[in-house]
Amino acid sequence: MTSKVTVVVPTYNRVNHVVECLESVFRQKPDWCSVLVIDNLSDDGTGELLRERYGWRGDFRLVSPSRRISIAEARNYGLREAEGDVVVFIDDDCVACDGWLENLVSPLRLDESIGCVGGRIRPIFLGQPPRWLRRDVYGLLGLTDWGDSAKDIFFPIGGNMALRREVAMKVGGFQEKLGPRGVKLFGEEISISERLRKAGYRVVYEPRAVVLHKLWGERLSLRSVAERAYMISMGDYFLFGRSIGRIAVNLGILFGSALGYTFYHQKNLICHFFYALGYLAPALAGRDPVSILDQLLSALSRLVGE
């Protein structure tokens, strides 16, 4: 018997994007799949439009929390509300390619030792990408491409992943509180992947499960990508703590990127510099790492005008 699958789509104020995302999911056409949208109290008409457009479908549900919640909380909400044995997550600004769903869930059906599967995430640039943007910073934008072969990985990206629902719930779901209170950090996918491995399950990559991630406007500015790099790395610190090895690696990245920018003026190296500081600031500095970030972003604006 084929396991039932629930595709969870968290969304907030992206009414046009989420419709395109949902259309790409429904085009997969499996009869063993249902779709659950977590509308995070959007005020752009998302809920009304989705109810009007998809409310008639027996394989569609729309739910909303009582308050606005984080992405980790939204994913946990999806785990609790899902009806399938397997829960798939796709972001509202992503478009699923043909065969995506079947390819993403197949490893879970074929191998009971696998607890989580992540797919490939490629970019769609809505407009001309900045000239400084290079592939070495694609990971900071939530893009993943670990080659053309299936393999075990450290963690997937939440915008294209599948989990065994019961196992994910048993290990505690996505970590909702990470780092200082009120600070938006990244790392919930890393945390749940680590706990799945400790519970005896594998985390794997399936290259044939492809989604396209839309990127546009401010999210492609140097300031935005540098800030994201800092927060991703700071999330690593609050997940794994202070270690001499990680400090040494990040010091190498820090000095290497600073030296490289000094000689070559490649702006992508600034993102690597911020990434290193995201770990080193809480690990080595006695001050609030978020206030340090504010000062760094101000300095960045003076340096490159962004």
How is this structure best described in words?
There is one protein chain. The protein is an alpha/beta fold. It folds into two domains: 5-218, Spore Coat Polysaccharide Biosynthesis Protein SpsA, Chain A (Alpha-Beta Complex), CATH 3.90.550; 221-304, no CATH class. Helices cover 43% and strands 19% of the residues. It has ten helices and nine strands. The protein has helices at 15-26, 46-54, 71-81, 100-110, 165-170, 188-198, 222-240, 244-264, 268-284, 289-304, and strands at 5-11, 33-39, 60-63, 86-90, 94-96, 114-125, 151-152, 160-164, 202-215. Strands 1, 2, 3, 4, 5, 6, 7, 8 and 9 form a nine-stranded mixed sheet that branches. It is globular and about 60 Å long. The mean pLDDT is 93.
Question: Which labels suit this protein?
Answer:
306 residues, alpha/beta, Spore Coat Polysaccharide Biosynthesis Protein SpsA, Chain A
The CATH architecture of the largest domain comes to Alpha-Beta Complex
Count of helical regions: 10
Overall mean pLDDT stands at 93
Query: How far is it from the N-terminal to the C-terminal residue, by CA?
Result: 55 Å
* Number of individual domains: 2
- Give me the CATH fold name of the largest domain: Spore Coat Polysaccharide Biosynthesis Protein SpsA, Chain A
The helix-strand sequence is EHEHEHEEHEEEHHEHHHH
The CATH homology group name of the largest domain: Spore Coat Polysaccharide Biosynthesis Protein SpsA, Chain A
Outline the low-pLDDT stretches.
none
Radius of gyration: 20 Å
Helix content: 40-55%
Give the strand tally. Answer: 9
Largest sheet: 9 strands, mixed
